[in-house]
Amino acid sequence: MQFDAELLLLAMAPVFLACIGWEAWHLRRTRPGARLYSWRDTLCNAALALMQQAADKLAWLAILPVYAFFYDHYRVHIWQAGWLSFALLFVAQDLLYYVFHRCSHRVRWLWAAHVVHHSSERMNFSTAFRQSLMYPVAGMWLFWIPLAVLGFPPKQIVAIVLINLGFQFFVHTQAIGKIGGKFAWIEYVFNTPSIHRVHHARNDRYIDRNYAGVLVIWDRLFGSYVDEDLREPPVYGIVEPLHTYNPLRATFHEWASMARDFASARSVPDKLRALFAPPAWAADYHARRMAASTAHTTLNDNENNNKAALSARRRPWKIL
Fold it and tell me: What is 74-118 written as a DSSP string?
């Protein structure tokens, strides 16, 4: 099955924009006090999307020859174009996306790129545009090499990746609740807004769950699935909040933090953890450093106060 995914997504652009417009209008009318949209947040998301698209255009020029090398020299099968090969490619890429996505939450080097997508404290259709231009540097493209080995041509690999990401636009919303009734089966097979809201939450119950791209079966198979609990609404954003709408800071803040932690770590194991440990290690490391700094400051203040008191006792005339 041959198609041009880039043209398909370009044709979908008006649909994406219409969805954002409808959702902003609908949420303002039905939940006026929630302020689920913000001009500054939405414009930041749009800027990040444009930056990421430009970087991807350049990155694919370098990455396609890599896929072609594995396809030409190591492929195990040649697939005839058709619905069967498309279905196999779709399922295989979605599984690899799950692996990539889960690794992106468990390996800080990958998280440094992926954190951009999670750093907004709002959840709406425009959040889907919040992407990082650093994905090629982090190594996202490495996860699709097995598709070339399986025998899928490089352009088809790019196409299926884009289609998968295009689908995910539609799960970034609070305007659609849990799917129940006779359609409840959908949430046992496919990613949905309810499932993905959990993924974007920083609540202890929800954090690092529901990594699905299109199919949620991988989360259910590998134990990372959690239902959205209506009694515990998701709280969006990251554990160490960003507090900026600057797209450059949103893109590079975690890389800068990682570099500082690598430089300040005193042991080789901690230097490696600064780069490759789960992001929770960094949050704990920052908390420990802050506590140590606070304790050091308090100790110095106490010492200075004691010295001042001793000096005053030795020179009582200074008090007069």
Answer: H-S--PPSSHHHHHHHHHHHHHHHHHHHHHHHH-HHHHHHHHHHH
Q: Do 304 and 241 fall into the same domain?
A: no
Give the per-residue pLDDT at 316. Answer: 46
Say if 72 falls within a structural domain: yes
**For residue 227, what are its two tokens?**
């239902």
* 232 and 294 housed in the same domain: no
Q: pLDDT at position 107, please?
A: 98
Domain that holds residue 105: 5-251
- Using the 3D structure, point to which of 220, 251, 282 is the last residue of a domain: 251
Question: Dmax over Cα atoms in the chain, in whole Å?
Answer: 98
Q: Judge if 46 and 94 occupy the same domain.
A: yes
Which residues lie below 8 Å from residue 118, measured CB to CB, with a gap of 6+?
200, 237, 238
Tens digit of each residue's pLDDT (9 = 90 or more) over 149-202: 999 999 999 999 999 999 999 999 999 999 989 999 999 999 999 999 999 999
30-71 tens-digit pLDDT: 998 888 999 999 999 999 999 999 999 999 999 999 999 999
| Residue (of 38, 235, 40, 214) closest to 118 by Cα position | 235
Q: Does residue 16 share a domain with residue 85?
A: yes
- Report residue 64: phi and psi, to 5°: -55, -45
* Bridge partners for 190 per DSSP: 215
